[in-house]
């Protein structure tokens, strides 16, 4: 990560640890749960939070909270070390904790084995514990809004935005699940991009809008930034699809999207040009789902998608979405240092 982001990341990590601590102060417990029965122990609380705490501690790209604080800097014109940006940092659990909760649930729904180089939460802690912990974290995430000394109007705006984006996130996941279940169905490109705007773009939008509003943006500015950030989120997801079929995603095995039977953009683009390969790819998916990530079917499918040019076409779509969206932000906030850092953050992923 570029040194220009490190100071911001250190502040973000400190807030995440404070809001999801390894041990629980009386103040944290009261703020999170109100008055608890005496029979409820700290060990009971730890067992609920453990899958979430562990996954957050394993790191991650953290581009969502970075986008949030940079958005606040950009619209306010303030520098990273300005105390007036405190709210932008202290609201970062809103996006990072929701993202973490969605990963726990996503791994359950996709029957994923690995996450960030470790066994997925449902394998480590059990399906019931992981499912409950992920649901809890969706609610715990919004606690940071209540904790901040913001105006009632701004808090209401943030709560409404958070809940709207959370509903959109689940709608996107619902579409993805439907496509997994309906094995013969292949979505059109616009359907895939719509699903991704909801599933991945929504948290990029939430991050950008939360940061912008914390930095004093107008409603129109926040809306523009949110819509533009959602397009960056789509580009990021398509890039993730491409990496899965080339070098492999960090902490996961190359081609595990094939094991999951994921109708990713490279698959959609390949079948648009080669509809006769539908049975072949379906067979690869079915064999990989039975034999696992080491199945020869995985590499055969990866090779097919790369040799047809579908992976390269998806990479170009990702590049266009990210570069054009970042360009729109830089143009709108012309000469702003934080706008340049937002652009560099995402275009740097394309290298």
Brief descriptors of the model:
351 residues, mainly alpha, Farnesyl Diphosphate Synthase, two-stranded antiparallel sheet, 19 helices, 74% helix
Provide a brief overview of the structure.
The protein contains 19 helices and two strands. It has helices at 3-19, 26-33, 42-57, 63-76, 86-90, 93-110, 121-125, 127-141, 143-147, 152-181, 189-199, 201-214, 219-244, 256-260, 265-273, 278-291, 296-307, 310-332, 337-347, and strands at residues 114-115, 118-119. A hairpin with a 2-residue loop joins strand 1 and strand 2.
Q: What is the topological layout?
A:
Blueprint: H1 3-19, H2 26-33, H3 42-57, H4 63-76, H5 86-90, H6 93-110, E1 114-115, E2 118-119, H7 121-125, H8 127-141, H9 143-147, H10 152-181, H11 189-199, H12 201-214, H13 219-244, H14 256-260, H15 265-273, H16 278-291, H17 296-307, H18 310-332, H19 337-347
Antiparallel strand pairs: 1-2
Helix pairs in contact: 3-6, 3-8, 4-12, 4-19, 6-8, 6-10, 6-12, 10-11, 10-12, 11-13, 12-13, 13-18, 15-18, 16-17, 18-19
Bulk shape: globular
Number of helical segments with 4 or more residues = 19
Record field, number of beta strands: 2
Adjacency order of strands in the biggest sheet: 1-2
Number of domains: 1
Structural class: mainly alpha
State the end-to-end distance. Answer: 13 Å
Give the biggest beta sheet. 2 strands, antiparallel
Helix content: over 70%
Identify the CATH class: Mainly Alpha
The radius of gyration computed from the alpha-carbon positions, rounded to a whole number of angstroms, is: 21 Å
Low-confidence stretches: none
